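User: Could you go from structure to sequence for me? I need the amino acid at each position, not a summary. C-alpha cells:
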C-alpha cells in the first residue's frame, strides 16, 4: 500500500491555521461593532440631541438676534459649529461601548483571535466614521430645512469630508485611549465634558477666535477642533466665514485650508497611534 511522505515544512503548514487577511479581519470586526451599535440606539440618537438642538433652535434664535454679521449668515455659521460638538460626543459614546464590551462583552475572546490587536481599534474606527457620517448628514439636512444656507460644491464637499473624517478618527483615538486606561464607566463619563464639550467653546464656534483674550487666542489655535471647523466652514461657506485668516493670517485661503487640514491629519495619526498603543498595553494587563 503506497504511502505519501510529507516534508516537515508541509506538516507545519498544515498544522497552522490560515490567518485572515487584514481587510477581511477589519471588515469582520467592523460588522460586529456595527451590530452592537445598532442594538444600542443610544450611540446613534443621543449624540445627535444637543447638536440638533443647536442647529434647529439656538442657531435660528441667534440669527434673529444678530442677523448678518459682516455679510455672514450667523445661523449657518453656528449650524456648522455643531459639527464640532457632534463628533466629540459621538466618539465619546463609542468609547463608552468599548468599556462595556471589555467588562461584559466578547473582548477577551477577540483578544485570543489570531489577528493583530491594532485591527480591533481599526474596526471600531470604521464603524464610528460610518455612524458619524450618517449623523452629520442628518444634521446638515435639518439645518438646511430650518433655514441655513450652504454653498455646497464638489470641492467644498471634499474639504468638509476630509476635515470631518480626520477629526472623527483623531477624536475616537482619544476616546479609545481613555476607555483603555479607565476601568469603569463612571470614571470615563466624568471625563467627557472636558474632552468633548469644553474645547468647543474656544474653537471659534459661536464667535471668531480673534475676539478672545491673547492667551486664549493662542490656546484656540492649538486645538485641532479650531482647524477642523475652519476647514468645514471653508468648504460650505467660503473663505470669508471660515476663520482661517484668524488662525494663519495669510492671504491664500486654499493654502491656509490645506495647512489646517494637515493639522487635523496629524491629530488623526497621533490619536490612532495613541489608541493602538494604549489598547495593546491594557490588553495584556
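Assistant: Here is the amino acid at each position, in order:
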Amino acid at each position: 500500500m503506497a504511502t505519501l511522505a510529507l516534508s516537515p515544512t508541509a506538516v507545519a503548514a498544515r498544522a497552522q491555521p490560515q490567518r485572515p487577511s487584514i481587510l477581511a479581519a477589519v471588515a469582520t470586526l467592523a460588522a460586529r461593532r456595527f451590530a452592537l451599535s445598532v442594538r444600542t440606539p443610544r450611540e446613534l440618537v443621543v449624540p445627535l440631541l444637543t447638536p440638533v438642538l443647536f442647529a434647529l433652535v439656538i442657531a435660528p434664535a441667534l440669527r434673529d438676534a444678530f442677523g448678518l454679521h459682516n455679510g455672514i449668515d450667523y445661523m449657518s455659521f453656528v449650524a456648522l459649529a455643531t459639527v464640532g460638538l457632534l463628533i466629540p460626543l459621538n466618539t465619546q459614546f463609542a468609547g463608552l461601548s468599548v468599556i462595556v464590551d471589555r467588562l461584559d462583552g466578547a473582548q477577551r475572546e477577540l483578544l485570543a483571535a489570531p489577528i493583530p490587536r491594532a485591527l480591533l481599534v481599526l474596526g471600531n474606527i470604521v464603524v464610528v466614521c460610518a455612524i458619524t457620517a450618517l449623523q452629520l448628514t442628518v444634521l446638515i439636512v435639518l439645518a438646511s430645512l430650518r433655514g441655513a444656507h450652504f454653498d455646497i460644491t464638489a470641492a467644498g464637499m471634499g474639504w468638509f469630508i476630509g476635515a470631518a473624517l480626520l477629526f472623527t478618527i483623531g477624536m475616537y483615538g482619544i476616546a479609545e485611549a481613555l476607555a483603555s486606561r479607565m476601568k469603569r464607566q463612571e470614571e470615563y463619563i466624568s471625563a467627557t465634558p472636558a474632552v468633548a464639550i469644553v474645547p468647543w467653546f474656544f474653537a471659534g464656534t459661536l464667535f471668531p477666535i480673534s475676539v478672545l483674550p491673547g492667551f486664549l487666542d493662542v490656546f484656540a489655535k492649538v486645538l485641532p477642533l479650531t482647524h477642523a471647523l475652519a476647514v468645514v466652514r471653508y468648504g460650505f461657506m467660503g473663505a470669508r466665514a471660515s476663520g482661517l485668516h484668524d488662525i494663519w493670517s495669510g492671504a491664500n485661503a486654499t493654502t491656509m485650508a490645506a495647512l489646517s487640514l494637515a493639522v487635523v491629519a496629524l491629530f488623526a495619526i497621533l490619536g490612532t497611534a495613541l489608541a493602538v498603543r494604549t489598547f495593546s498595553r491594557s490588553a495584556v494587563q
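One structural detail worth keeping in mind: The first helix runs from residue 8 to 15.
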